[in-house]
Write a structure and sequence with these properties.
Distance between the termini: 21 Å
CATH class of the largest domain: Alpha Beta
Strand content: 5-15%
Order of helices and strands: HEEEHHHHHEEHHHHHEEHE
Radius of gyration: 21 Å
CATH topology of the largest domain: Sufe protein. Chain: A
Number of domains: 3
Shape: globular
Number of helices: 12
Number of strands: 8
Length: 359
């Protein structure tokens, strides 16, 4: 069965992909803040940019006037990103005020999301915080002095627990506390950890061991139900969810911006892999094997998580013919899945000339 989306979620998604006036799918040139979260290899990735009306004397009074996003994800990811931009622009928030937006606010704006899609609202919240941190760097705002804990060394120094989604132990522990997560399915729904190969579920030092450690001596799941929000969605406080790998490197600050000194850790930014050079010498067999590897290793596991599947039908020159099956076959976001997940991944990892066609 296909996912049950609210009418508002479906309308926001359709308006965005059709490029209707007032929607936010796109990117701001020379933005005042830029943040990213996720990875195309994981099936969900979001780049969030915003522009502010600068206060001439106090950067804390800057007001966010425009917000845009680029996302490689499903219907929920696009709709949640639209919701985030709408909330910001409608309320005319300062960047610091925007940090108060929680994933529960995004879900409420959408009139709900399927439980398996809550991670899409978390992804938008994370990208927003990374963008606000970037704005603070450019405007010389000391977030630590405002009591905002950015945890800049969290990913670099922590042990990786979920290798599929590169989620570290410190990040995982903090999210369990912040989101009041009590079970492995709750962790997967909120931050996707353990959602692919599932090897980390009960491995030594894995998700269950970390849950037991964090929750030692605390009430049981049944006792803690009352701590959830009225919407039934655990709220994500943005303060303290910074990812150093999502910060724009110092060299990307537009000329004229007076950014303060950037911590050494921020240079840990890893750019996406460069597209394959058109005309690379591959035999038809090698070309087909590379495409099959990407489909089997990255793309199909992500699609299967949503109850769908994909079959490679044929390859003619650089045109790849595929068939979407299961939930994806009748999904309103099928064209976006093909473009942003399948085609984009193959262009990045195999050959930039590839075009994907559904049959």
């Amino acid at each position: 069965m296909a996912w049950e989306y609210s009418e508002k979620t479906k309308q926001l998604f359709m308006d965005a992909v059709q490029g209707k006036p007032g929607t936010h799918l796109g990117e701001i040139e020379n933005p005042d803040g830029l943040g990213e979260h996720g990875s195309i290899a994981c099936g969900d990735a979001l780049r969030f940019t915003f522009r502010v009306k600068r206060d001439p004397t106090d950067p804390l009074k800057d007001v966010m006037t425009q917000a845009r996003y680029l996302t490689f994800g499903c219907t929920s990811a696009i709709a949640a990103s639209e919701a985030l931009c709408c909330i910001i622009e409608e309320k005319e928030l300062t960047p610091i005020e925007a940090l108060k937006i929680t994933n529960a606010d995004i879900v409420a704006f959408l009139d709900g999301l399927p439980s398996q899609k809550i991670h899409c609202s978390v992804m938008g919240a994370e990208a927003l915080q990374a963008a606000v941190f970037n704005w603070a760097q450019r405007r010389g705002v000391n977030l630590a002095a405002l009591g905002i804990d950015i945890n800049p060394d969290e990913q670099e120094e922590g042990r990786i627990v979920c290798t599929c989604f590169t989620i570290s132990e410190p990040y995982l522990k903090r999210k369990i506390k912040e989101l009041n997560l009590r079970t492995i399915p709750e962790i997967t729904a909120a931050i996707k950890a353990g959602g692919a190969c599932m090897n980390c579920h009960h491995a030594p030092g894995g998700l269950q061991d970390i849950l037991d450690e964090v929750r030692a001596g605390e009430p049981t799941v049944a006792d803690s139900v009352s701590t959830r929000s009225e919407t039934g969605v655990t709220e994500l406080p943005l303060v303290g969810t910074f990812h150093p790998g999502n910060v724009v490197p110092p060299g990307n600050v537009p000329p004229g911006d007076t950014a303060g000194p950037v911590p050494d850790k921020a240079t840990a930014y890893t750019p996406p892999p460069a597209p394959k050079v058109a005309g690379e010498k591959l035999s038809p067999f090698q070309f087909a094997k590379k495409i099959e590897k990407q489909l089997n290793d990255y793309i199909r596991p992500m699609i299967r998580k949503d109850g769908g599947d994909l079959e490679l039908i044929d390859i003619k020159d650089t045109t790849v013919y595929v068939e979407l099956r299961g939930n994806c076959a009748g999904c309103a976001g099928a064209s976006q899945t093909l473009k942003y997940l399948v085609e984009h991944t193959l262009k990045e990892q195999v050959d930039e000339r590839i075009r994907v066609v559904q049959v």
